[in-house]
Amino acid sequence: MLNVEKLNQYYGSSHTLRGVSLDLKKGECLALLGRNGVGKTTLLKCLMGVLPVAAGNVRLDSRDITKLKPHERASLGIAYVPQGREIFARLTVEENLMMGMAVKPGRQASKIRSEVFELFPVLKDMLHRRGGDLSGGQQQQLAIARALLADPKLIILDEPTEGIQPSIIKDIGRVIRLLRERGDMAILLCEQYFDFAHELADKFVVLSRGEVVASGVQADMGGENVKRHLAV
To answer: What residues pair up with 151 in beta bridges, in sequence order?
Structure first.
């Protein structure tokens, strides 16, 4: 589904990504781990086309998308839930959800699927509330629901547990697990919360100073070679 080969990126003279490679198949959840400031969000923005890459390539379903713009990648099936959620605070919950379907043609973009409310029941009761009036956890659920309404092949989640109360972290974990078990999309989960990622991911990639320092399957995630790159 997703193949990244030797990706390099710079902020001015700072070499922020150094030959990063990873691959992710349909039905898999890959956890991208690392401390703050090691390049995780930069990598995700490169995958979404928000930031340009200096070298390397990105493929989706074997198609080279390295030079495509963000809206072109979205139309091909990539959905991005950014760090900080970035919902539209002045729009209602319903309007935010409708924005998630903007990549879909005609009638397909006119109706919110009931599945979203089965995954996130709280949103159904808040359809006419402004997004900015929701709690942080509710906004995170809204941001994920908005992304799912695009029917993505690949969903990218950047720090979905950041600043969220434990009860909603459990709800978000439940949804990610259901999506993985459903098997019709790939999930790239960027996290600092090791236990959360360990329960959900099939495999992992650990970044440090912009490069991959460890990778492997879920069974290898508990090793000290992983945890030493996450400890503050």
So the answer is: none
